[in-house]
């Protein structure tokens, strides 16, 4: 689930703050995960970097996190389900998943695929300023090029809700 709330920074125009809540549907006893993903660094010259660099914070929470965020004034922007596989290559995490939209509420039985394609995501958790990892990611992405089209996603052009 993707939640948003308007944030006021030192008297400027309101900026939406986005928080994501996720959980494993097949392991109900696992904790929920709350994630904040920051804005891309260096957005003016984003094409010169091999990857998008953003700060992120992950927190393990209880199931009451949804109620807590709602009480804070957050609203649900969209909700989706991802089914797929995760692989590791060193510090890199590669996920290959199909994205589904929920059709009639919450049950897992009522999902339909958004597309026939799979989403391939390559990510690394790294301290700020480590650009060598970005080159490793680009080299790995080049190896996948015959099978998949990998590209950086322009966050500003993404729709705020899933179809």
Question: Could you name the key traits of this structure?
Answer:
single chain; 163 residues; mainly beta; 2 domains; five-stranded antiparallel β-sheet; four-stranded antiparallel β-sheet; 2 helices; 36% strand; globular; disordered C terminus; activator; Mediator_Med18
Uncertain runs are 158-163
pLDDT average, as an integer? 80
Shape: globular
Per DSSP, the total helix count is 2
User: Major sheet: order of its strands?
Assistant: 4-3-2-1-5
- What's the domain count? 2
Oligomeric category:
single chain
Number of separate strands: 9
Largest sheet: 5 strands, antiparallel
**Helical amount:** 10-25%
Bin the strand percentage: 35-45%
**Could you say which structural class the secondary elements and strand pairing correspond to?**
mainly beta
Characterise this structure.
By secondary structure, the chain is mainly β. The chain folds into two domains: 1-78, no CATH class; 79-148, no CATH class. Helices cover 13% and strands 36% of the residues. It contains two helices and nine strands; from the N terminus they run E-E-E-E-H-E-E-E-E-E-H. The chain has helices at residues 65-72, 132-144, and strands at residues 2-7, 15-22, 32-37, 56-61, 75-78, 80-89, 92-102, 111-113, 119-123. Strands 4-3-2-1-5 form a five-stranded antiparallel sheet, with helices on one face. Strands 6, 7, 8 and 9 form a four-stranded antiparallel sheet that branches. It is globular and about 45 Å long. It starts with a strand and ends in a 19-residue tail after the last helix.
């Amino acid at each position: 689930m993707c939640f948003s709330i308007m944030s006021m920074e030192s008297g400027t125009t309101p900026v939406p703050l986005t928080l994501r809540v996720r959980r494993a549907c097949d392991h109900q006893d696992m904790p929920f995960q709350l994630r904040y993903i920051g804005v891309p660094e260096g957005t003016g010259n984003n094409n010169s970097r091999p990857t998008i660099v953003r700060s992120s914070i992950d927190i393990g929470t209880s199931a009451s996190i949804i109620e807590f965020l709602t009480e804070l004034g957050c609203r649900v922007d969209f909700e989706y389900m991802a089914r797929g596989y995760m692989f590791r290559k060193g510090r890199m995490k590669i996920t290959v998943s199909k994205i589904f939209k929920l059709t009639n509420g919450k049950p897992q039985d009522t999902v339909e695929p958004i597309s026939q394609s799979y989403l391939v995501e390559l990510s690394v958790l790294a301290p700020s300023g480590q650009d060598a990892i970005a080159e490793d990611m680009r080299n790995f992405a080049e190896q996948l090029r015959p099978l998949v089209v990998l590209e950086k996603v322009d966050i500003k052009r993404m729709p705020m809700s899933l179809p």
